[in-house]
Amino acid sequence: MVSAQDKSLVRKTFESERMDLDAFATAFYAKFFAACPEVRPLFSRDMTRQEEKLLAILTHVAEALDDSARLDAILRQQGEKHRKRDVSDAHFMGFITSFTGALSDTLGPDWSTEAELAWTRFLTFVAGKMNFAVQR
Ligand code: HEM
Fold this sequence. Notes:
Belongs to the globin family. The chain is an all-alpha fold and about 140 residues long. The chain has helices spanning about 5-15, 20-35, 50-65, 70-80, 90-105, 115-130. It has one domain: Orthogonal Bundle (Globin-like), CATH 1.10.490. It is built from six helices and no strands. Helix 2 crosses helix 3. The structure holds protoporphyrin IX containing FE (HEM). Protoporphyrin IX containing FE binds near residues 42, 57, 81, 82 and 123.
């Protein structure tokens, strides 16, 4: 379950005037590959398509925040796409800190500790629904 307050903070991130999704996606993967260099070879050299896919799924997820059946279906399908990827706790932690770090860089003064905590809880929920074997 995602609390109403966390949903609202997640939504606010997308609605910020400072939000620049393309810059965010590029910054996110740069941080993720710096934190977890061993995953770099699993991705294409040209990250354009991957960045587009990440932004597309984030948009779907944001649109489905108030429809838990739809959100579950989206995340189950994403989980299926990661089933054969060996996603460890460390990778997932690297994913979260890179994600919130890239949001912080992108949003500057529009980012806050509350937003970071809400996104961390939200991404942990997402990981659970994607069936990653992460500690919750
Ligand atoms: C909340 C967490 C995550 C989300 C929302 C997410 C999202 C995505 C999306 C949208 C794709 C594209 C799938 C497609 O082809 O349609 C993808 C692919 C992929 N993801 Fe994730 N991901 C997450 C976590 C991770 C983590 C922690 C790893 C760590 C290894 C990872 C590794 C990969 C790999 C290797 C691919 C395939 C890349 C390729 O085929 O070029 N993902 N992910």
